Amino acid sequence: MKAILLKNSGKVVVEEMSLPKLDSGDVLVEMSVCGLCGTDIEKLHGQYTAAAPVLGHEAVGLIAGVGQDVIGLKVGDRVFPHHHTPCRVCYYCKKGNETMCSKYRSSNLDPSGFAEYFRVPSWNIKQGGVLKIPKNVSFEEASLIEPVACCLRGLSRARVSKGDTVLVVGAGPVGITHLQLLRNIGAKVLVSDINKKRLSFAEGQGASAIYNALDDVSSKIRSDTSGVGVDISLVASGNPKAILQALKSVRKGGVVCLFGIPVVGSILDYDFSNVFNNEVSIVSSYGATENETMSALNLIEKHNIDAKSLISDRFNLDEFEEAVKTAEKGDCMKIIITP
Q1: Count of domains forming the chain
Q2: Residues 158, 255 contacting (CB under 8 angstroms)
Q3: Strand pairing partners for 193?
Q4: Are residues 135 and 248 both part of a single domain?
Q5: Among candidate residues 93, 170, 81, 96, the one with its CA nearest the CA of residue 126
Q6: How many CB atoms lie within 10 A of CB 186?
Q7: Given this model, what pLDDT does residue 153 score?
Q8: What is the average pLDDT value for the chain, to the nearest integer?
Q9: Beta carbons of 231 and 251 less than 8 angstroms apart
Q10: pLDDT per residue over 297-334, tens digit each?
Q11: Pairwise CA distance, residues 298 & 99, whole Å
């Protein structure tokens, strides 16, 4: 079988290898679609260290084999397997910080979500990490379950409510996903980005206002909100400049949610006395749990989020390097990989 692997040298290779061996409780999945995430790009450049450098975690497909003692799953089932699952009993899980659980990042899809076949560990299955995909949800739509789930967790941590004015900094795939979810909540959504094509897409997706991030966005937003600022600034970019823009645009008593992942070594040049004086809350959001993946699947199934509209480009495994180059140019939305 073919698999996309990241070698220690930082080089990506398409490697021919044997099917993963199943231990008791494991399942083998034949990949149908796997989304390309920004974290995959960061892993390629050695800029992401939050979890093991395994590529491809937005994978869906058909169960092609089951190990001993697997209950509730069979060959032929259409599934979404979550790559990380928490223990639910440790200190962090009990405090509601499940994605900080040491078990959460210890397992993964083997050898990669970008593979013709991959193994889902028994741990993930026992913790409820494998969801069956309804017949009326396509594999392409289902490949958005994980990123939608992450966005749901971010909005929950930011405590977004109906009627809030929210600035989404970054109009890439996750920024537009947040835009769709925020509109469902009933928030007024403003979007900023340096990419005019993405800003135009955001406007077509229902953004109330769009801003070129190269301009003085915070001043324009203050002007457009009668000097108040936005209730919530949601950073859907890993660029430190995006964080600065979010901090300068939020109102007194507002919330800044760090959703995009800053690269290792990022430094922020900001006077944090402003955070204290203006009682600004800063929260971050990492990953998602099965509570969010189930909610995400429900939203996609009921078409409360338009997953198909987020997909702009499709490549196969042999075209992986081209897919990465397309993503790095930034003119696309969601890229998906097929066998």
Answers
A1: 2
A2: yes
A3: 212
A4: no
A5: 81
A6: 11
A7: 98
A8: 95
A9: yes
A10: 999 999 999 999 999 999 999 999 999 999 999 889 99
A11: 21
Q: Are residues 234 and 327 in the same domain?
A: no
pLDDT of residue 337: 98
The C-alpha angle 144, 149, 151, rounded to 5 degrees, equals: 100
Q: Name the stretches of the chain with pLDDT < 70.
A: 9-10, 47-52
Q: What is the C-alpha separation between 155 and 158, in angstroms, rounded? A: 5
SS3 per-residue string spanning the chain: CEEEEECCCCCEEEEECCCCCCCCCCEEEEEEEEEECHHHHHHHCCCCCCCCCCCCCEEEEEEEEECCCCCCCCCCCEEEECCCCCCCCCHHHHCCCHHHCCCCCCCCCECCCCECEEEECHHHHHCCCEEECCCCCCHHHHCCHHHHHHHHHHHHHHCCCCCCEEEEECCCHHHHHHHHHHHHHCCEEEEEECCHHHHHHHHHCCCCEEEECCCCHHHHHHHHCCCCCEEEEEECCCCHHHHHHHHHHEEEEEEEEECCCCCCCCCCCCCCHHHHHCCCEEEECCCCCHHHHHHHHHHHHCCCCCCHHHEEEEEEHHHHHHHHHHHHHCCCCEEEEEC
Q: Omega of the bond prior to 339 within 30 degrees of 0, cis?
A: no
Specify the CATH number for the domain of residue 67.
3.90.180.10
* Token representation of residue 117: 């076949």
> What are the tokens at 279?
């009682």
- The answer to whether residues 51 and 91 belong to one domain is yes
Question: For residue 11, what are the domain limits?
Answer: 2-144+307-338
Residue 30: how many CA atoms within 13 Å on its side-chain side? 9
196-204 and 173-185 helices cross at what angle (nearest 10)?
20
Q: Which of 22, 31, 53 is nearest to 122 (CA)?
A: 22
Global pTM exceeds 0.90: yes
Amino acid at 104: Y
Tokens of 323: 């897919």
> Is residue 36 domain-shared with residue 78, that is, in the same domain?
yes
Residue 111: other Cβ atoms inside 10 A: 20
pLDDT digits (tens, 9 = 90+) for 168-214: 999 999 999 999 999 999 999 999 999 999 999 999 999 999 999 99
